[in-house]
Amino acid sequence: MGYEPRTQAIYQITHRKPIPVPPPESLEDIWAADVFSLSKMQACLPKGVFKSLKKTIVSDAKLDPSVADIVASAMKDWAISKGALYYAHVFYPMTNATAEKHDGFISVQNDGTVISEFSGKTLIKGEPDGSSFPNGGIRSTFEARGYTAWDVTSPAYVMETDNGVTLCIPTVFVSWTGEALDKKIPLLRSIGAMNESATKVLKLLGNEDVARVNSSCGAEQEYFLVDAAFANSRPDLLLAGRTLFGKTPAKGQQFDDHYFGAIPERVQVFMQEVERRMYRLGIPAKTRHNEVAPGQFEIAPYFESADAATDHQQLTMTILRNTAKKHGFACLLHEKPFAGINGSGKHVNWSVSNATQGNLLDPGDTPHDNIQFLTFCGAVIRGVHKYGPLLRAVIATASNDHRLGANEAPPAIMSVYLGSQLEDVYEQIQKGAIIGSQPGGIMDLGVETLPTFMKDSGDRNRTSPFAFTGNRFEFRAVGSHQSVAGPLIAMNTILADSLDWIANKLESELSAGTELNTAIFAILKEIMDEHGAVVFGGDGYSADWHKTAVEERGLPNLPTTADALPVLTEGYIEELFDKTGVLSPRELESRFEVYSEQYILSIEVEAKLVIDIAKTKIYPAAVAYLSNLSTTIASLKESGIDFDTEILNKVASLTSSMMGATSKLGIALEKEDFSSMKEHMQYSAKTIRPLMDEVREYADGLEGEIADDLWPLPKYQEMLFIK
Predict the structure, then answer these.
(1) SS3 for 406?
(2) Element containing residue 287 per DSSP (H, E)
(3) Mind listing the pLDDT tens digit for each residue in 178-187?
(4) 148 and 91 Cβ atoms separated by less than 8 Å
């Protein structure tokens, strides 16, 4: 008889009945049906109140507090009509998670009866514990007060589960002393800073009518699906989100037969429900497909404003996880849940636009004479070169370290890919004269019945961490479980800084009587002379690039989170955030403290799991196999059969080595005398992680030797291929 939990899991999965597919619904009928949108507000609010609220949402005008009671009453009535009995202020603390506190609409009257009540004061302000969330020392344990404040720009919605309906109100989270304790406040500040600098540049370029500038975001979400019966049998998946042990199967992704392959029926039913729930919440899911690795998938939305996209990304991760449970899956958002095959990222497509000038990163058909585009693209080049270490720091996590730099994800060295056409244009600028732009050309497939079409002027580069892809930049190094807020804050802020620098230069040149085009090209030439080293169109995976980038171009290589996070303590980064008003020095320091602690704790949890699983699951299996094998060999010898003991000796040696490495790991975990958080992170990266890898090497060797029916953990081939 096989090892019961594992064989039972396989039986359960292979006999699992798929959830029935619900009847299709019209997109028009369900789109944003669960969102208290502008159109719904207009239908139920007095004209003056709606006009005031819309002005705040659309134009960043200050909220009129007098409208809060009326909006709260209408919001409550709408939510109750959808079946809600509770409301929740939803916010995003300095983790990559979503936080919410549920309160009932119930209000008990003097006569013992109850009514449904929701006031403007309650809508505007909530009060969660400010010291129980990660805060980096901003709040002491005994200083508990923190506030949530209504984010008017992000619409309320109802979240429906099998257990009921809740009105969810997007908010920001701030301490009693006024510091941001969340990811939303700095994001909104960064958008404001970028808008101010962009407006200044656009007006200097001759635009009189300039609408508010915002960044846009479309985040491609990669994830794995593993059957819940397997996941529940793996303590590492349950508590760490990744497999800490597992021998690479004979077949992985080497045949390239999973990418864009036919979506498994059970997975497609899951995807359809995910999309239905997303559409009801106004999240524009547009693309779904199999990703490169077996068991890996992707969902990508249509782009939208950065602040809305951030909220929607958090909702998307929640919906993926919750819907997966309903369908008998575990949705894994860890960047590297399985060793030896591709991990998961979250490519953040980022651009900048407004209602009057349009997409400011759209080169048009003749980018060489598009001064507006060249200016904004030049600002990005300067920002990525000057603040590349910051971009590395904001995507630094223990889990993302597993994929950055491998031949599946961009390297940890920050560079900009422009494509051959734009790279040529900027090289011309650097040489002092623009001649023209390389055309895209026509794609002729050589078959009469197939259409011809215009091909793009440049190829894509999947090895670049920051690549221009036609009318936007794609930050490819973001991790799959991360909030997009951190990367967006960094990109908006470095763009604001570069645009401000350009505006000051341009203003000075124009005041001196320099003609506009001459002044712009002189500024762009200076950018390329000082920052052109960051532009790279080759293979970011190659060893030559790593050597060239560091030794010849002076680009930093920060391979681990322990190397990257200290960037947040550098003086020039503090100055960047302080002068743009995005983060105060204290707020920036708190983020370093929080993210450093999360890194250390993540590795500590994994190390403890490695020890526990090695001792309580793998070691007993190895001992049982050795006992069975020894008995069998002894019996054969008694029968006069000479049996080779090589396997017995190998398993015994691997078992002994595994337990020796486990013991070393346990001793290493006991060290506590660290002089700083930086030293502790380096110890985690350079001592704890290698010891974990050593235990794994012996354990995975045992998996390849021990009888299959004795192995206690679901194997890679089962988790990846049985759906």
Answers:
(1) coil
(2) strand 285-290
(3) 899 899 999 9
(4) yes
> Alpha-carbon distance 295 to 291, whole Å?
8
- Write the DSSP string, 341-372: S---BEEEEEEEEETTTEETT---S-GGG-HH
d(CA 610, CA 608): 5
Name all domains of the chain by residue range, CATH numbers in brackets: 23-182 (3.10.20.70), 190-583 (3.30.590.10), 599-721 (1.20.120.1560)
Q: Would you tell me how many other CB atoms lie within 10 Å of the CB of residue 179?
A: 19
Query: Do 452 and 445 contact (CB within 8 A), yes or no?
Result: yes
CB 41 within 8 A of CB 78: no
Distance in Å from the first CA to the final CA of the chain: 24
At 622 the three-state DSSP class reads helix
Amino acid at 505: K
Contacts for 82 with CB less than 8 Å, ≥ 6 apart: 34, 158, 160, 165
Look at 132-141, 224-233, 605-614 and tell me which has the smallest mean pLDDT: 132-141
pLDDT (tens digit per residue) in 267-309:
999 999 999 999 999 999 998 888 888 999 999 999 999 999 9
Q: How far is CA 592 from CA 58, 105, 452, 496, 603, in A?
A: 33, 38, 53, 22, 17
Give bridge partners of residue 292 from the DSSP assignment. none
β-pair partners for 305: 216
